[in-house]
Queue: 3 jobs
Job 1
Amino acid sequence: MIRRWSIPLVTVVLAFGVMGLAGTASASTSHSNATHVSPGIAALRGINIGGPLRSHGLLSSGEHGIHGTEVESENWSGYAVTGADGAYTSVSSSWTQPTATCSSGRHGRGGSDTYAAFWVGLDGYSSDSVEQTGTLIECVGSTAYYYGWYEMYPSALVTYSNTVEPGDSFTASVTFSSPDQYTLTLEDATRGWTQTQVIDESGLDRSSAEVITEAPCCTNSGGILPLADFGTVTYNGSEANGASLSSESPTEIIIVSASGQQEDSTSSFSSSGSFSNTWITS
């Protein structure tokens, strides 16, 4: 989940909902928050990206291509598994960074800039926190920017200064270890960099694990940002607690607008445990 910010000429302050500080990590492997801002991040002005699932309701079998009775959401699509507090200790998946189709003439949900985030995480389905890491597309007019990032929502988003390009092969994971430690790892195998954050935080539910494509939140008024045309993204090897997500009765999710218009689709799981999200409209 991700947010938008205001960036003065000298001091970079990333306002993330509660006015927390965010930054950019630049080392190949990092265990601390970043101190440098990646070149394209100045385009992220005034927007907060991040937040739990915003449910729009249940879908009947066959509606919008759903494969059962599942959930429509204004910001998430993909799959989530849910349980009691403390049920989930790990989640992971791999994907190829999709290519954005950006157009200065496209206006979705009230704006011309569009966004799409791809991530794995714990929590957020039925809780107020999300522990997550992944990649982001930001279309500013006809120009696409790509980032790696992590976030311990509601704390501020942190982006990485490492290069991200379409076609890069990513693996992401979030792991909890007792008593209160979270390890968030994002690896770009194509470019040979890995970012690892080790963060101590207590009191989080760990009641869900998910692999998600997201229309990020929020504008200053709290609205969901327009979903960038990301084409199709395919998630491979998605696991929670070391077992295939497809074997854990996952909840299928699609993104819809506030009026219920479908904005992307979620495929069923393949025999190998892969699934895809495909953009439809913003």
Note: The radius of gyration is 17 Å.
Job 2
Amino acid sequence: MATFSAFVGLDVHKASISVAIADAGREGEVRFWGAIPNTPEAITKLTRKLGERHGCLEYVYEAGPCGYAVYRQLIAHGLACRVIAPSHTPKKAADRIKNDTRDAITLARLLRAGELTFVWVPDEIHEAMRDLVRARQKASHDVRQARQRIQSFLLRRDRRYAQKSWTKTHGVWLANQSFEHPAQQIAFQSYLNTHGQAMARRVELEAQIGELLPQWSLAPLVHALQAFKGIAQIIAVALVAEIGDFHRFASARQLMAYVGVVPGEFSSGSHIRPRGITKAGNVALRALLFEAAWCYHTPAKVGSFMDARMPADVPQEAKALAWKAQVRLCGRYRRLLARGKKSQVAVTAVARELLGFIWALATQVVPSPRPSANGSAH
């Protein structure tokens, strides 16, 4: 493990980067170095100056809207750099002054003290797939929002559809709705058009995910996860894209804590007060996990639909583990309901255990070689 002579905190913004340095040692000086433009040339010049003066350095900055460009530039030059989670940065309750200088100094000091929580930085291909998955999630949110507007508009005019909504028959019923005033007809048609555009955008993004998936090194893991009940291609891609490298979690419990499905606690002395799940981490990831867990309220079974959607290259080991998970989780859901637990509590428990099975499978699947620019694998 490298021994660093100084620690550099970078407060990164769109146009500028504030720099602070903390000398090694408990009593080392912590000082503000200055501000530089946020350009590759200025960053290279900074690292050269600091390297000549201090030797071995470790850099740190907060994850934010500027992405990982600074991290990748520093790593490409052989420098040590870490990206931290801003929400986990220690902060004094009475600290009411915040500016770029103080932020950079705080980062340098806390990095030296080892009090920062680092995030996993994806490679360029993984980040690109994650961007595509998140674009699909936004499109799905737009669909739900458009449907809510249509339903609210109809409810205000006492228009009710008695059968199942958002089917082909329901679409015909919506298209045949007419209103007395032309303004209302135009407003309703604009809501229908918005819904149709959001649906088309979601379908297009899902098709692009399926087309680009074979080029991803984690495609074997995505295929293997589809052996689980409730996890089709879109949910499998989203889980892998958001979690990333499963091997960075030493145990399934660490992954559960990362997703935020472990029970919370607020205890002091002899008083033990359990709480609900912590809900830490990615909200969209947790929602996808709950969506998959709801499928385990039915008896364990591999039906024709599930067998048809499962990719042909799913290994037999993955199918065996998925069946073991299905038998256990379907039974656990029924037992929890029999004990008087609410269905939401039962699904949360199922989701937590399902995540453990996913971790067990993900740590066994070997990623495929990543194709290079000329088409060869490396």
Note: Confidence is low (pLDDT under 50) at residues 372-378.
Job 3
Amino acid sequence: MKTTLVTAAELAPHVNEPDWVVFDCRHDLGDPEAGARAYAAGHIHGARFAHLDRNLSGTKTGSNGRHPLPPREVFVEWLRSQGVDEGGEVVAYDAQGGIYAARLWWMLRWIGHEAVCVLDGGLQAWQRSGRVLTTAVPAILPGDIVDRAGINPVVAAFVEAHLGDKSWRLIDARSPERYRGENETLDPVGGHIPGAVNRYYADNLDADGRFKSAQQLHAEFSGVLGEVDPRDAVHQCGSGVTAAHNLLAMEIAGLAGSRLYAGSWSEWYANPGRPVAL
């Protein structure tokens, strides 16, 4: 059972197996339909398409962030419609460094499905290995996955209650510029949650777009954590997407048990009574 990463060579023998379900998670925040067009133009054999806004997010209310989680039962029903079985392996990939694939990875763990992994290096690694793409849409038989109530996300009230508490660590996955409140292009309010430390998700990858070694990630995240236990680390970003990339990186590093603040910055600033740091 794969629970963090899979290589292109490891995935290739399984793409025709019914108990392995592959999801193409490509997306562009500036062009929400770009991923669907890319999928139609060519994808890994057997892959289904997972749209960040329609399948991996719920309804926005104006106060719950840009990519709120969908109701658990809605997510599970969609997984069943895509052929995911209770005992099956799920593989997620994208072409954006794994940020959208990591969102699906975390959501499977959210409902208690541990057999889920991300294609290391994404679609680029698949193509560099000489493997071809297809435009064929797979025939899908309904799956039987169930909600086993896995890890729970952290809510804003928890973050508010723990501001200034040195026993935990809030880790912001956004770029250093956005963390500082500079060059903010996605949210109308710049800055970060007071006390949050910055760990840019892109720093989890090497020059080839693959995750760094477990040893290197362990050393780097240990520096971010300091004396804080990994189980007392909470990840956030702009909307709960790239934060999952840091959570995955910590799992690869053997620093298990950290949590996600799913609403993240876009939920935090929606309440003008919450403090903002620059």
Note: The beta strands are 5-6, 20-24, 48-49, 89-93, 116-119, 169-172, 197-198, 233-236, 259-260.
